[in-house]
Structure formats: structure tokens, C-alpha cells
Amino acid sequence: MSAKKKVQKSWLRRGRILLAICSFVMLTMLFVALSGTKMFAFMAKAQFIPALLAGNFLVVALVAIVTLIFGRIYCSVVCPLGLFQDLFNWLTKRLGGKKQARRFEYSEPKSILRYSVLGVFALLLVFGVAGIAALIEPYSAFGRMMTDLMQPAATGVNNLLASMFSDSFGREPFVAINAVALSVSIITFIVVALLACRSGRTWCNTICPVGTLLGCAAKVAPFKVRIDESKCVSCGLCGKMCKSSCIDTKNKKIDYSRCVDCFDCIENCSVGAIKFTTASAIAKAEAKADDKPAEGGVEDGSRRRFIATALATGVAIPAAWAAKKTDDVAAAVSEKKPSERKVAVSPYGSLSHKHLNDHCTSCHLCVSKCPNNVLRPALGEYGLAGVMQPVMDYSRGYCDYECTTCMDVCPAGALKPLSLDEKHGTQIGIAVFNKDLCVVSESSHACGNCAAHCPAGAIRMVPDYTAPLANPRGNQRYKLFPQIEEALCIGCGACEYHCPAKPFAAIHVEGLEVHKA
Question: Which of 73, 142, 234, 326 has the fewest CB atoms lying closer than 10 Å?
């Protein structure tokens, strides 16, 4: 085999694997790392559907151009769900040996199913039901699995270490999830993993709407994996190694709408009959071969090539650190239940419930990265269209006055970036006080936690002249209750979180369907 062929075989697949490992590790760290690795947020914003919803046309155009020239490189290097499938395919090959490594065969494209799913997905996006469409959107599916399954595991490991080495580790609260989000994540994990173990990239080439859309563009790409028929000896090995099941070895054809440019076929072809090149280059090679005597035989014994063992450890849970909560009301707060609101509170930057429903893909990156653990996946707070989209839960935390993390990391434009000054002037809800639930009503002790923790100065304590305090010294005093200045309240929930009343806080935030600036 010529040196040029060896170079192509070595660098195409190995380079693709190296880039894929980097992408997978960064995206996994982004969701799972407890220390808040916002530095990798650019990887989330490089995802196709979130970029499309955010109006990030630079990313959309870049993905489209690369696909139109080189095919579905995006699916093999950038898409985290595709890389997740590759991980399980790799594990299957490692555990099952040569038989499992060569378990694939060509299958006819399921075009009706693929384009039907793509059509329904597009309609859901057009009609503003992104939350339902997100069930099969690849980046969001991966994000939910990492947030709802992997991050709790990482938190558990961290807290176990904290119990043994308290000087080096701080305890972390578990990310807020619910039964619906957890069930969806578990089902997605099982289905995608089983399909990958059984038949490689089946999910990508039957269900994934991004794969179907990019597959249409890949058909016209000038650079493709091509078969040089003048060299092919019809051994069929390429088809057995193709995890996309797109190589028809009998007719020496490749379905480019399903090929994800993994380059496994190039790596394993012992006669160099498969190349990543243009049609004209293949035509020249075949014409040149016609002028030479026919060569017989196949190179004896195809050698095993580079195996990316680092992929197995690429999802290792990083060591985490965080300071312990020291607030004196933390114990009381932990037993509280979410307040019963008439209108749910959507996060800062969401602008309105409708904007959130139209753009959010329920990837749960904001839930994962929220340092105060105030965000959780919604159940029915926004209706069916907003299931699993982020909602404020002030029984678990409050929105830090000086924090913009959720808006900084959102890749889909569902949470528009706000400066701190803009956030301080945005009202997402208004605090409401229920005197009957207040601990002061049933005791002679003063409280004032809500006023003390309000960062906007919207709450002040005023005497209730109908509620005198017993005073043996004869100096009449009255119980103090909170009075809310609605114009100043921004809905951060600090008052609700710090309220010691339980199971329901005596002061809670009622959301605004449209935020006020």
C-alpha cells in the first residue's frame, strides 16, 4: 500500500476520533461538572437546532456549508448523541470481539419514516411546540440524560467524598428533577444505547431529524467516501464494518444520506479501494487502472488500527468543589414544598412564557448549571407545550441577584442574555404575602427574614396595630409583618426561599406570563 494511502487511512479516522473525543468530553463536562464549567458553553451553542432557534445563523451556515462540501461530518464530530452511540458501539466491539465488530450489513433506507419524522418535527417547531419536538432533538436528548442521570451520580460521589474528606470537598445539593423528566431520560438512554449496541447509528438514520435534514444536503457533497471499483475485490468487509448500514457491497453503492463520515470503511479496506475524495478523482483512478494489467489477490491479513481507548474514560466524573450553605434557615427550607402559584415563574431572559415555549429545547443545561439550584424541569406549569422546560422553584433556592449563568449558557435563545443592570430592572414575578401562614402570626417572636434577604429593597416590615405584643413593662408594641412594594419587586424569590414557614412559605412569588422591564 502506498505511503499516501497509509497517511489517508491514518489521519482521516484518527483525526475524526480525536475531535469527537474532545467534543464529547467538553459537552459531558459542561452538563456534569459540579464546578460550573461555563468555558465549554460554546459547544452547546454550536449545536444545529439550538443555533437555528436562537437565530445564530453563523453556526447554521457553517454546518450547512461543511455538510454541502464534505457530508455529515457534524454527525461524527459535533453531535453529542451521535458520539454517545459511538461509545456504545465501541464498547460492543470491545466486549464482543471480531464477530461484533463485523455485525453490520446493508439495509434499505427507511425514507418514509425518516421524512415523516422530520416533517412532524418541523411542524412542531413552526407552531411553537419546541418542548415536544425536543423529545427527539439530539443535543437536548443528550443534555437531559447528562443532567437527570449523570449529574445526580456525580453529586452522589461528591457528597460521599465530602463525608470522608470534608476539608477537600463540600456537599452539593442534588439537581432538581421530576418523575417525568427522569422517566424520559431513562427511556431515551435505554432506547438509544440498545439501538447502538445492536445496529450502530440506527437512531441517527431513522429517527433523528437533524440527521435526515443534513443527509439531504450530504447527497450533493463533492467530497465523499467513494468506492474505486477498479480496485474493489468484493470482500464485503466495508459493509460489515459500516455502523450506518449504508454500503451496498453487492452493487458497490453508498447511501450518502446515511453516511456519517466515520471513515471506518477506509481504515479497514485492505486493498485501498475506498477513498474520501471527489468523483473526478475516482474516475481518473479507474481510467488509469484500465491501462494496467489486472492485479489479483487481497493483501494478506488486515491489521488492526488505532483504537481510541481514551473514549472510555472521556466521561469520567471530574472532582468537584463547592462551599457549604451556611444560612441559618437552610434546615427549615429543606422541608418546604413548592408554593401553589396561579402563574408559573419563568427564568430571567425568557421574556415570556410564549417565548420560552417557542425556543426552549429542554436540554436542561440551565438546570444543570444554576448555582443556586432554583431551576427544575416543569411538569404542567406551562401546559403541555412546556413540559420539561425550566421553571423557578423557590422551595429549593432563589435567583442570585448577581448571577446570569442560565442566560449565558442557553444555546437556543430561549433565555436571552441580560446584563446585570438589565436583570435588576426586569420583573419576572411579584411577591404575595399570606398572613395566615406567617410564623409571626402564631408566636410572639419577630422574623423579618423576607425583608432582610430582599436584594431589591421591595419589602419592609411594618407594625400591625391589630396584633399587639404582650409587654410586661407597659410599653405597647405590635407585631411586624412584611409590606411589599410591587413596583420594586423583581420576583427573584429570595423572600420565599428564606421564609421559615413550612410546608408552604408565607410569602411567595406569582409569575408574570410576560416579563416587565
Answer: 326
Which one of 252, 287, 322 terminates a domain?
287
Write down which residue in 220, 254, 287 finishes a domain.
Answer: 287
Instruction: Look at the pTM and tell me if it is higher than 0.90.
Output: no
- Looking at the structure of the chain, the number of domains it has is 2
Report whether 257 contacts 288 (CB < 8 A): no
Going 320 to 322 to 325 to 326, the CA torsion angle's sign is positive
Q: Say whether 11 sits in a helix, a strand or coil.
A: helix
Digit-coded pLDDT (tens) for 435-481: 999 999 888 788 999 999 999 999 999 998 887 876 656 667 888 99
Q: How far apart are CA 488 and CA 460, in angstroms?
A: 11
Residue linked to cell 431513562: 186
> Torsions phi, psi of 77, nearest 5?
-120, -35
What are 231-265's pLDDT values in tens digits?
A: 999 999 999 999 999 999 999 999 999 999 999 99
Picking from 353, 379, 375, the residue whose alpha carbon sits closest to that of residue 364 is 375
Range of the domain at 451: 425-517
The count of C-alpha atoms lying within 13 angstroms of the C-alpha of 507, restricted to the half-sphere facing its C-beta, is: 31
